[in-house]
């Protein structure tokens, strides 16, 4: 029912309305499938992202299947595109190991919003798990989405020109005004002659351009095409730069044609006219600025290659909002990017050439010839920008000084300086100051002030501030406690990428704290944090985390649970942190010890040179020297270092056999790095046949020594079911262990330091945050401080209920003392009602699961008294005996309890004899009082004390033999400084 109209053959004119086209609609259609495939390929190929785990790049676009077109239906443009895209990516981690994966986009179409586009990233089947996958899924997907968004923009801007066609009425009106009919047959470039064409169908102007010298279009339309950069690019299918004004320059065909518009005219009497000179520049001559004449003129006056952009501005630059010049010589005109100034192109506003530091731009391409410019900002905006830059500079200087000192007095002065930077509105400084006020670190503790700053930052989208507000609402610090609000803020913080928020959410989903318990959700959050922690671990296995229990330290002052000596702490911090302020001191110590022949020092010097730091330049040859020296003397650290050198080709050619050999030697001596790397080789099949059982074995051995990467690798295997039965619960526990070894674990030490200094409020808040992150030791320490009523932050009537909450969370993570404390709280009614039955449950759990002597003793007492359980003397004795067997410390109280129990049993026995009537008349409570059993125990204790004192006196009276004289050194004694082999 339709016939082809004259002009563009894609212009369809319906002869009449019919059942399928009742409105007699007109439309055009343009097929852009081939262009789209090239555009998508060009936008995706080579796309690269970098992160802490390494870098990833799309190396091949393997499939682009689909179609694309543009339709004009009844004067409305409709864009249709539907694609299935597949690509390959290659990732390289910090150690240089490469991983391969794929990207799949199953439905890129006009029906899907770009933000909802499904982009799937995965590793190839034969590849082991790597944090690079998460990097690609997070950052890579963002860039892919942006690139595809640019494709859609290009599609709509570069191929829709001329698609909205004029109506017949409009054309007739135009013809009447110009007194000339629009020519629809061949039009020569530069010609203004016209011919009448038969009026069959609707007379239209089109932009259907070909690479010939004639076009089915009007001169006016052609004039517009050649002065519009986007349309020139569409016409030539190559990059171009066009400044469509008189005197403007152009660069066509990837720089092979340079030119300048000498004259432009749209006079209706003379017709539209373009006069331009151009020169052909071969690619091999472009570097020398040579020209070869192929145009109407042999030279183009004033046109040199350096005057033109090296390439057209990218689409994302062209379509972004362009600032308008303020003042200068071009007030009100838009800036032109790029513009040429002092032989250099600028793609954004610049301060170059100005002494006052204000941003400016040119409003034509060549500032040197046109001198048209203006400011990009007002004086107030410029002043504000300068203040921001000054604040940033002060912040960076202050942070650098804070990180370079360990003196507390110096840090306090620097935090006062940081406070002034925060007052200038610097967001990061405000975050640090707010946390310092919250914890009382180097600034006076002020929770209300910290809350005020956090609220301001949270409104501006700071993930750290959102996480902090979640903590305040969760703990009820400065606000009424609200778990719902806490969950909202934690979620926002996690969406913003805050790792602490992810860790808190992981713990909450794992324990069902305020949310339904979900192992898979916990796994998602913990794995994300663990990826970051694992990527931050050096070969030393991570930081040394001290989990000091305040209850144990108070009850056992002589125990070794306290903080290690300061020098040893600094040594561990060095091992964990490259570039730490102790690195130089550690290097000096290792150097002295190595010169004295200490093999461990030699090996650790090799590590320092292998990893490099601010104080020790990375040097593979020197590292290899020390590793080999230590390995030759049988040192496992040196052997492991040599294995790493051969595994990754550091200073030597890659040799997997030698790497395996040295790792095996180190592992045989129990060195954790050797075990870990052996596991890695078996897991990846590097130099050996892939063997997940062997990998699991060596990862387990390394994890027993506490290596973070061993825990991480085991977690990955259990999470994916690689070599083992998949276990979400085991994977979460392992990932949680890794997460708790992150740098935030250092706050355990600072909290303990505050406790030792007597600053209970600061210690409590720090432990509270760590407790939110799921640290069991922090939860028990919070409960202990509250139990002792050592802090003034909470009201007195809140301390026991809050302590009960944290004892509950610590007990759920397997802490025996916390479980017993729960029984005590229910027994005595601390923070809850007295509930003997619940107390019995907690004591029984501690007895059966952790074999606690205290829990067994308490169960014996409750059986004896019949509290919350049926009275049973025999079961009471059984639990007392079990307590004595479980712990030697329980023997004395058990002895006293059994003496009392024996007396009670004897009395009951007498009651069963013939003297029953006599004895039954004796009421012990009435005779000796209601606390008669305590009196009896006191008497027995006195007797026992007398016996012990007597035995000690006898022991002291025995004369002791004199001490043996010191043994003279043997002939083969080792020289000083050389420890004996154990």
From TrEMBL:
Gene Ontology CC: one annotated term: endoplasmic reticulum membrane
Keywords tagged on the record: Coiled coil, Disulfide bond, Repeat
Chain intervals for the UniProt region annotation (Disordered): 281-320, 958-982
InterPro entries: Aha1, AHSA1-like_N, FN_type2_dom, FN_type2_sf, Kringle-like, Sel1-like, Sel1_AlgK, START-like_dom_sf
Ranges for domain Fibronectin type-II: 330-378
Coiled coil: 381-408
PROSITE patterns from the UniProt entry: FN2_1 (PS00023), FN2_2 (PS51092)
Pfam families hit by this protein: Aha1_N (PF09229), fn2 (PF00040), Sel1 (PF08238)
Family indicated by similarity: Belongs to the sel-1 family. Belongs to the AHA1 family.
Species per Swiss-Prot/TrEMBL record: Labeo rohita (Indian major carp)
Compositional bias (Acidic residues): 296-307
The name this protein goes by in its record: Sel-1-like protein
Disulphide bridges, residue numbers: 335-361, 349-376
GO biological process, one term: ERAD pathway
Gene Ontology MF term list: ATPase activator activity; protein-folding chaperone binding
């Amino acid at each position: 029912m339709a016939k082809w109209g004259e002009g563009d053959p894609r212009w369809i004119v319906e002869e009449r309305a019919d059942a399928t086209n009742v409105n007699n609609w007109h439309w055009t259609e343009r097929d852009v499938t081939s262009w789209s495939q090239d555009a998508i390929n060009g936008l995706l190929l080579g796309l690269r992202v970098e992160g802490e785990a390494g870098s990833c790049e799309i190396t091949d676009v393997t499939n682009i299947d689909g179609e694309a077109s543009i339709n004009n239906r009844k004067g409305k443009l409709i864009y249709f595109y539907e694609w299935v895209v597949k690509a390959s990516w290659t990732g390289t981690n910090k150690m240089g190991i490469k991983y391969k994966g794929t990207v799949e986009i199953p439905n890129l179409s006009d029906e899907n919003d770009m933000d909802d586009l499904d982009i799937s990233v995965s590793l190839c089947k034969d590849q082991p798990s790597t944090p690079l996958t998460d990097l690609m899924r997070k950052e890579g997907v963002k860039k892919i989405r942006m690139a595809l968004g640019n494709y859609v923009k290009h599609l709509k801007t570069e191929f829709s020109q001329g698609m909205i066609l004029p109506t017949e009425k409009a054309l007739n009106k135009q013809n009447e005004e110009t007194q000339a009919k629009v020519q629809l047959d061949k039009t020569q470039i530069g010609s203004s002659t016209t011919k009448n064409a038969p009026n069959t169908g609707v007379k239209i102007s089109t932009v259907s351009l070909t690479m010939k010298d004639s076009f089915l279009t009007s001169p006016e339309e052609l004039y517009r095409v050649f002065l519009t950069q986007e349309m020139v690019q569409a016409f030539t299918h190559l990059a171009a730069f066009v400044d469509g004004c008189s005197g403007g320059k152009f660069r066509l065909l990837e720089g092979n044609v340079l030119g300048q518009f000498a004259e432009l005219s749209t006079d209706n009497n003379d017709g539209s006219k373009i006069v331009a000179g151009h020169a052909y520049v071969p690619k091999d001559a472009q570097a020398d600025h040579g020209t070869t004449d192929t145009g109407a003129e042999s030279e183009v006056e004033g046109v040199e290659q350096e005057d033109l952009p090296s390439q057209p501005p990218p689409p994302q630059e062209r379509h972004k909002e362009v600032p308008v010049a303020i003042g200068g010589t071009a007030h009100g005109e838009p800036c032109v990017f790029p513009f040429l100034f002092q032989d250099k192109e600028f793609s954004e506003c610049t301060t170059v050439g100005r002494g006052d530091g204000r941003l400016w731009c040119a409003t034509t391409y060549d500032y040197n010839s046109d001198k048209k410019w203006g400011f990009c900002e007002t004086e107030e905006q410029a002043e504000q920008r300068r203040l921001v830059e000054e604040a940033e500079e002060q912040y960076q200087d202050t942070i650098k000084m804070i990180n370079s000192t360990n003196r507390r007095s110096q840090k306090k002065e620097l935090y006062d300086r940081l406070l002034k930077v925060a007052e200038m509105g610097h967001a990061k400084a405000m975050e640090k100051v707010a946390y310092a006020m919250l914890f009382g670190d180097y600034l006076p503790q002020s929770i209300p002030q910290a809350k005020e700053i956090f609220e301001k930052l949270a409104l501006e989208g700071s993930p750290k501030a959102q996480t902090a507000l979640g903590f305040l609402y969760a703990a009820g610090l400065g606000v009424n406690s609200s778990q719902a609000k806490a969950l909202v803020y934690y979620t926002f913080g996690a969406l913003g990428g805050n790792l602490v928020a992810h860790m808190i959410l992981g713990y909450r989903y794992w324990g069902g704290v305020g949310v339904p318990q979900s192992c898979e959700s916990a796994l998602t959050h913990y794995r994300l944090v663990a990826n970051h922690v694992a990527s931050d671990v050096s070969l030393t296995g991570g930081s040394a985390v001290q989990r000091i229990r305040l209850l144990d330290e108070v009850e056992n002052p002589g125990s070794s649970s306290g903080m290690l000596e300061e020098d040893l702490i600094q040594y561990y911090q060095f091992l964990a942190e490259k570039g730490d302020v102790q690195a130089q001191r550690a290097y000096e110590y290792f150097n002295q010890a190595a010169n004295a022949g200490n093999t461990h020092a030699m090996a650790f010097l090799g590590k320092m040179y292998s990893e490099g730091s601010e104080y020790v330049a990375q040097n593979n040859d020197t590292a290899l020297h020390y590793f080999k020296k230590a390995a030759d003397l049988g040192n496992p650290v040196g052997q492991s270092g040599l294995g790493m050198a051969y595994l990754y080709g550091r200073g030597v050619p890659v040799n997997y056999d030698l790497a395996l050999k040295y790792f095996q030697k180190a592992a045989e001596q129990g060195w954790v790095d050797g075990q870990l790397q052996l596991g890695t080789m078996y897991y990846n099949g590097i130099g050996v046949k892939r063997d997940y059982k062997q990998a699991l074995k060596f990862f387990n051995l390394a994890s027993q020594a506490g290596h973070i990467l061993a825990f991480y690798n085991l977690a990955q295997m259990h999470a994916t079911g690689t070599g083992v039965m998949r276990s979400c619960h085991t994977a979460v526990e392992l990932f949680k262990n890794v997460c708790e070894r992150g740098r935030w674990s250092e706050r355990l030490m600072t909290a303990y330091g505050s406790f030792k200094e007597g600053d209970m409020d600061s210690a409590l808040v720090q432990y509270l945050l760590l407790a939110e992150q799921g640290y069991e030791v922090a939860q028990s320490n919070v409960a202990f401080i509250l139990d002792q009523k050592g802090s003034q932050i909470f009201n007195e009537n809140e301390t026991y209920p809050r302590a009960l909450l944290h004892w509950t969370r610590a007990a759920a993570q397997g802490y025996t003392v916390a479980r017993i404390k729960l029984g005590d709280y229910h027994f005595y009614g601390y923070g809850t009602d007295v509930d003997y039955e619940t107390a019995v449950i907690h004591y029984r759990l501690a007895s059966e699961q952790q074999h606690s002597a205290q829990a067994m003793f308490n169960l014996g007492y409750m059986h004896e008294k019949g509290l919350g359980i049926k009275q049973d003397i025999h079961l009471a004795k059984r639990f007392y005996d079990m307590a004595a067997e479980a712990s030697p410390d329980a023997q004395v109280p058990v002895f006293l309890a059994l003496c009392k129990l024996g007396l009670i049993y004897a009395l009951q026995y007498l009651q069963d004899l013939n003297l029953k009537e006599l004895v039954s008349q004796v009421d012990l409570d009435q005779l000796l009082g209601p606390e008669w059993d305590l009196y009896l125990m006191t008497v027995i204790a006195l007797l026992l004390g007398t016996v012990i004192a007597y035995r000690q006196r006898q022991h002291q009276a025995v004369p002791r033999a004199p001490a043996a004289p010191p043994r003279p050194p043997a002939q083969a004694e080792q020289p000083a400084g050389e420890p004996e082999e154990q």
